[in-house]
Amino acid sequence: MGILDGYRVLDCSIAMAGPFAAQRLGDLGADVVKVEPVTGEWQRHVAAGGATGNRINVSFLSLNRNKRSLAVNLKSAEGRAVLLDLVREADVFVQNYRPGVAARLGVDYETLSALNPKLVYVSMSGYGESGPYVNRPGQDLLLQALSGAMLSTGRAGEPPVAAGQYLVDAVTAYTAFEGVLAALLHRERTGEGQRVEVNMLDAITTLQMQELSVFTVAGKPQQRSAEPHAHVFIRAPYGTFATADGYLALAFPPLAKLGAIIGEPSFEAMNDETDTWTHRDAIFARTRERLLIRPTAYWLERFAEADIWAGPVHGYADLVADPQIAHNGTFVEYDHPTEGRVKTPGFPIRFSKTPCAVTRGAPLVGEHTREILAAAGYPEERIAALAASGAVALGEEA
Q: Fewer CB in 10 Å around end: N or C, the chain?
């Protein structure tokens, strides 16, 4: 039994941030009901990276394990009534509809909290529930750009560099996940539910707590270098460098030590706290030239001997085969009824008494509609009538 066993989550979200947050709740043992249209959630039909599956594409598969699927037409009165019945007994409701959509569907906080005052209602958005940007598209790359994050890396005068992951979606998901847990704790203490608002802009902005404080408190400008320094507020050398046979990452080594190892005598007279800022580009360039002479393994061995912070630059194939990843059990493997053997990242939190587990893979559309409604007290004839009217879809079993 997971730590959230006994809690019911209604996941009405789409794309990445909302489903990822709800999946984390499912990993902790909550009963997560994926509420999706009768034709399936949008993410089922858009394969990230072109990775399709047998009946479930990899994108949906990766964000919807440990959930059951209820396929329901919320634009119909009958379908909406089904959802409201489930809300009465639910603990958490998650949605990331466009502004105004929840109210039009009759699933806004005011409506649902009147039915269930103990409900934790999570509303996720791109920029907030109101304000000048309320109708802008909440897309990861656009938020990376708006938040200032991109202008902390890369070369001055060249286009800003985006993260290689859906960074804003991921941090927003974890922010919502954190908010749910805090709100449930509040409910345990007081018996009352509440509305939890999370938006992508605030999530990625507050993630940059240290960098933005350097700017707002100390007044230090966000100024990129001519060399591809990895962070505007960290002294040189700091970044990734090519070697004779690959790449390595190097993090602010003591200059005298570094100079002695790579054969750059000019570093030995430099001051780590002043010259590393005033001569940042020159230090980076000289380090780059010297590291090209030898292979990665040679430099990493020498740096380790000198207690200099350096490490390899992994691709995904290297990461999956990494011995520490294997030791940690970072990836989980399980058998999915339609997609076969699945290997995906597992659980970042470990509990000694209530461990996380994959109890079910991502569901087919409406795979659990009948099961969920029957458990909610719907007789079989009413379920059949709802399916016949198009208010719900029973789907196919795996």
A: N
